[in-house]
Every structure is written in structure tokens, then in C-alpha cells.
Amino acid sequence: MYRDTLSLLGPALPVVSFLGRLPTAMCQLGSLLLVAETSGSLATAGLTGGALAAGQTVAGPVIGRLADRHGQRGVVLAASLANAVAVTALVLTALVLAALGHAPTGPLMVLGALAGATVPQVGPLARTRSVALARRSGADDRTVGTVLSFEGTLDEVSFVLGPALVGLAAALAHPAAALLLAALLLAVCGTAFALHPTATATAPESPASTRSGAAERTRLPGSAYALRGTMVLQGAMFGASQAGITALTEQLGAPAQAGLVYAAMGVMSAVVGLSMAAVPARIGLTARWRAATAGLVVLSVPLLFVGSLGALYAVVVVLGAAYAPHLITVFGLTERTVPAARLAESMAFLTSGIVGGQALALAVSGRLAEGHGAPAAFAVAVGAAVACALLSWAVRVTPPVRELRPAVAERSG
User: If you compute the radius of gyration of the chain from its CA atoms, what whole number of angstroms results?
Assistant: First the structure.
């Protein structure tokens, strides 16, 4: 199945889309390390990182909507170059303020917010583009599911490799080196993704075709908002797990292991994500969603009882096996239920929901972990998993909007 996917996408698109989304995974941790080192204040670093996450959460769907209306090429090109400039400005400002011996929080937060707001959303837009290519070729839903599994795996690998590159650069040189590398990748690979010939696969409809029945064809079903909600909860699981892992490894006297534990979870998630293409087609997306959320609950509960580093590794790695099925299935349900004219916006909303949920849960569960230990943070993760499961059973997912898919093919042919 993946041979067909690679044949459909071509050799260059997966490479440039992967390298183009890698900076997103690097900038969050990179900004924290950079500001913490140059300002000497963890509070300033946290506020700058929070501003970056807030900027991405708010602006991500806007960029997706612009791509739906005006096409990906110009939007991604402008965002990639603006993001490269914003990240570079953040680095230079942090270094200059450190040299002056004074690092006011306000300017760093503003630049962090700009760096977040200009993220070009390569991951969500690559999904949208890949799905459009699959639909244009006449692919069935199983092939589209394989494409989404492949894109989900690229995301998982980027979010494991990105922080690892930041940590390596910080250890060998300086956190600024990691962010400057991210800016270079944004300028080069973001531009390559924008200018790739497949950008026309998601070209917007002509004005004449959008005037008739536009409101009907772009109205979102209620289930689309529920799917966005479950991604916020998934992000909350990530944030709470990260806080709990950090607190427990510090308690055990091995704080350096926190990143490795989190990376191991990401690797397991990526491996399971690739295997999702083998799930029989007779198991529908709604059933997969409910099974995935049940897995989140069952596999997260042991987090409340871990007390050793070995047990932490075992529990977290096993929990990672439930993440990819949930993420990939929610992306698949969204692709099947929202109008084609709002697919990029909807994909960006899902990604922004993860970022926002993670940032909020990290802030809340971090404080809980400080006062009550790692189990308090892990309890937030378990609560988010339970909420995901309840949502998956309470929501009736609207049937696929089939009639809108041929429009993508006709616009791209």
C-alpha cells in the first residue's frame, strides 16, 4: 500500500514536506532553551514559549482558510518566508538582549507570538494536498486512509527528530544554532513545498462556481467541531504526560531521561501509525475512533502507579501505541465529513487544537506536579483520555460529503 502512496505523491513531495514541517517541532523547545539561556529566567522562557504556542493556535486555522480560498502556493510561500524572518529575529533579539545584560519579557513574547502566528502549516496542508492527489487519481477510501497514515507518521517522526536536533545543537554549540537551522529549513524547504507542482492539486474554485450554493457547500457539520475538541484533549494528554514525565525523572534523579522517554513514546506511535494501513476496511472509522479512545484510557491509567524509570519507559512506550491510531482516525474522519472547500482550514484546526491543548495542559499540570508530584500531572492525562472516550461515544459522525470530492479532481485535472 505504501508503494502506491509513494508513487502517487512522487519522490520529492514527502521529502520537502517532512523537512518543511521539521522547524515546527524545533521551534517550541528551541525558543525555551534559547530564552532560558540568554535571559537566565525560566519564567521569561516559559512566557515566550507560551506566546509562540498561542500564536500558532490562533493563526493556524486562518492560514488554512487562506489556503482554501486562494490556493496553497502563495500562502505557504509568504508564511514560510515570514516565519523564517520571525524566528531569525527572535534569535538575534535574544542574543542582543543577553549581550546588553537586560532581557525584557515583552519584546521576546511579541517575537514568540509572531514566530507562532507565521508557522506555514506544512503538516496540515501536506495532508490536504495528498488527499486531493489521491481523490484526483480515483483512489478509494482505503488508499486515502493509507495516505493519511503516511502523513501521520511523517508528523510523528518530525516531532521526535525535531527536539532531538535542538538538544544536540544546544549540547554541541548553542540553542541559537538550532533555531537558525529551523529558519534555514523554513526558507528553503517551505519554499520548495510551496512551489512544488502538486500545489495546484488544491487550487480554489473559480468565483463563478462559488457563488451558487456556497453557504451550503461550505457549512461544517456539528461532528467536525467534536473532532476538533477531541484533538484539544489529545494535546492535553501530550502536555500532561510531558509534565508528569519531567517531574518523575527529576524525582528519580535522572532529569536527562525525560526527553528520551518522550522520544521513545513518539517512536512507538510512529511505528504503529505505519501499521494502520493494514487495518481491514470493514472496520469503519467510527469504530476505530472508539477503539482508539478506549485504548487511550486503558493504557494511560498505569501512569498513575509508575515509580521507577524502567516502569516509566515501559508504560509510556506502550501508551504511545494508542496515540497514532487516534490521531490518524480523527484526521480521516475529518477528511470524510467536512466540505472539500474547507479541508485545509479543518486540518489546520486539528493541528492547532493539539498545540493549544498541549500548552494549556502543560501549564496546569506542571503546577500540579510541583505541588503534588507526578501522579497529579498524570491524572490530568487520564482525565483527558476519559473525556476523549466519552466524546467518541456521544457524537454521531455525519456521513461523508461524497458529492464534494469530485470537485477537487475537476479543479486539479
Answer: 21
CATH code for the domain of 74: 1.20.1250.20
| 339/199 same-domain check | no
Q: What type of residue is 113? A: A
C-alpha cell at 398: 455525519
pLDDT at 412: 38
Predicted TM-score (pTM) of the model is: 0.85
Say how many CA atoms lie within 13 Å of 290 toward its Cβ.
10
Based on the domain organization, do 156 and 268 belong to the same domain?
Answer: no
Q: What residue numbers bound the domain in which 190 lies?
A: 11-204
> CA 189 to CA 319: how far, in whole Å?
32
Q: Check whether residue 55 and residue 144 sit in a common domain.
A: yes
The dihedral of CA 269, 274, 280, 282: what is its sign? positive
What is the identity of the amino acid at 262?
Y
- My answer on whether 183 and 264 are in the same domain is no
Of 151, 170, 204, the position where a domain reaches its end is 204
Task: Indicate whether 210 belongs to any domain.
Answer: no
Give the list of residues 6+ apart from residue 321 with CB closer than 8 angstroms, or none: 268, 269, 272, 295, 299
**Do residues 138 and 410 touch, judged by C-beta distance below 8 A?**
no
Please report, as a single letter, which amino acid is at residue 169: A
The pLDDT value given to residue 404: 39
In the chain, the number of structural domains is: 2
Examine the domain organization and report whether 181 and 258 are in the same domain: no
Let me know whether 146 and 248 are in one domain. no
Q: Over the chain (413 residues), what is each successive 10-residue block's mean pLDDT?
A: 78 92 88 85 84 93 94 95 96 87 84 95 92 85 84 84 82 88 95 93 60 57 89 93 88 84 85 85 89 96 94 94 91 88 90 90 86 92 96 78 40 38
Confidence (pLDDT) at 218: 67
Locate 233 and state its grid cell.
Answer: 484533549
User: Would you give the distance in Å from CA 296 to the centre of its chain?
Assistant: 18
Q: What is the pLDDT of residue 152?
A: 84
List C-alpha distances in Å: 15 to 20, 84, 154, 328, 347.
8, 19, 10, 20, 20
